[in-house]
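QA checklist item 7 of 12: single-chain prediction sanity check.
[x] sequence parsed
[x] length recorded as 751
[x] structure emitted
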Amino acid sequence: MVAGLRASILLAASALLLLPPAVVAQAVAAGSVPRAGAPLPPPGEMARLKAAIEAGDTAGARRRLLPLVEQHPEWGRATLLLATTYFRERRFELARPLFARAIELDPEEPFGRLALGWCHFYLGELAAAEAAMRAFLVLAPEHAEGHYALGLVELERNEVAAARRSLERSAALAAESGDRVVEERARARLGDLDRRQSGPAGVHPVSGPGPGAGPASATGLRFTLLPDAAGIDLVMTSGRMPSREIAEVNGGGVALFDYDRDGDLDIFLANGSTLEATELGPGSRLYANRGNGTFEDATAKAGIDLRRWATGVAVGDYDGDGWDDLYVACFGRNVLLRNQADAASGRRFVDVTAQAGVGDPGWSTSAAFGDLDGDGDLDLYVVNYLEFDPQQPPARTGNAFKGVPVMAGPRGLRAQPDTLYENRGDGTFADSSAVAGARVDGGLDYGLVTLILDFDGDGRRDIFVGNDSTANQLYRNLGSLRFENVADRAGIAVSDHGVPQATMGFAVTDANGDGRPDLFNTAFSDDTNTLRINLGDGLFDDRSAQYGLAAVSRPFLSWGCGFYDFDLDGDEDLFVANGHVYPEMDGPDLGASWAQEPLLFESRGGRFERASASASGAGEWLARRVHGRAVAFGDLDGDADVDIVMTTLNGSPWVLRNEAPRGRALAVELRAPAPNRHAFGSVVELETPSGVARRWITGGGSYQSVDEPVAFFALAGAARGTLRVRWPDGTTTVVEGVHGDQRLVVAKPPL
């Protein structure tokens, strides 16, 4: 979306280098060139600055531009380039006044107005954004991207008719000029509008039409924060408070799984330690579900004694014995805990890390099981972060956020490469990272989250990796355990501004109901959480603003997240955990806070609307500021709707019980032959006369977490639907006459 804009801004900022003398003289009168008496930049310096910005060295370009702007305050082109350095970094609040100044200095320069419009747009200032973009179109009325940008602003303001006109104009102009990128994006959004307006009354198109669930006004988002976390008495540990080092800020993970196969979900919490004793923390915990909405500590009974600094967790039956095992990512050697029978306790976890060969020694954050080579057993992908020595932490000097000194990292610290473990089928794994092509040589990326999902529908599971402040990866599965990183080509490596995001969490939905998995990622504050629509042909497009998820997220540093139909109205809503990493955010004028309230969105009419504690009745907990981190989703109380468990930094976990109305929930549990008994990689569809809703059973969770591997739908009253399961091997099972208010088990038939 903004690639062309970025080029336009840079072109405008460097155009003076090519102007004829007569035009230069006019520009001098307008204050667009350096004035006499002040030192001039060396010959070719502006071109070098432009190239530096294009190459991503915005900080270096800014260091050279700041004195130029100070010495030549009326030099519009230098001001424009300086604004562009902030724009590329998505620091829109700093770019905005500089673009406004550049326009003041050169009122006839159009592209600064378009950039100013984008700044207003991403800061949530929609009226100002529309005004700036209309002013741009007065100067450049045939600019396809300008009409496209105006259309997006009008969509954000829910001015559907006006948006359609702008997008149609954009598509026509782009077709005339041969700009296929803008044309395809404009037509894709027009297609979204068509689907949005053609759906049946009372049906919301986010995640597919709501099959038989009725209008959103019939239900509402309602959760109860259970007192004392329903028996979970752990106060989690991740260093000390306030956080002083980067090792202390990520927090611990959570997994929801039925470890003893008694029919209800248990909770595993990956707990950390302190910098003074990284191997001697209070220990990770396993809480068994009593079946009455409360939990009891089963850690010792289950044989778990894991006191090293644990971070994330993955769940899967790696050895094919029919019982879920735990892989725990750690700061230090990771741990594989095999779930085996025990005469005294029933089930007991045994450390088999050394025998299995999966003791990755780095700082691992997240991990995921999935059948990556199509041989039926579960392989393992482990995401690693960076090198950190607790005894010699990096110096804090020279690190700042918005001018305030903060802790070091991740930039400037050495990253660690990820690991892909191939399951040999005999209880052991082989490190196949290098031969598979799923490793970045030199360890250049700070990994935080991974998701295993067939994004292109070719029947092979691909790997998404979200990185902190470096480009994301999308490893497309080529077969035979060979992968190719296609993230840049697909449009998910960096933001639309060409800048890497701090990707903290992933979630999957079908936002426009076209049957393809769309990808949502959370991000750092002053950036925007991003919803990318899967366009097919291996391409994704940022639609965050269109769906109402862009501007609202800017004050928040977001982590775990998930799309689920919490209110059972037929479309998927969204929950996001928040909490900043810098304690310094509680200081003045930084635009955010250290502890932050979570975000809960209800999908309505093709957009997401933020729920509030006061207006929505969702629960007073929505107004509480907390250091939220990992989130896991599943049915904790057996009523087939989706409950939430959220970890907090050095605090107690939250257990949120869903109070959705009874009679609508449909939970579909898949059972396949071991070892992939949860059928990771399956797609589940529910079709009714209202439409089709789809869910994906993925490997991995949103951030250091594991959700219950179940497909959740809503189906009200006497409504009936047809359920289709596409299994990982490509075969299909169809179940007719499915109704709501049940937990349905679908077993894979033998071949």
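[x] summary fact logged: The longest strand covers residues 335-342.
[ ] second reviewer sign-off
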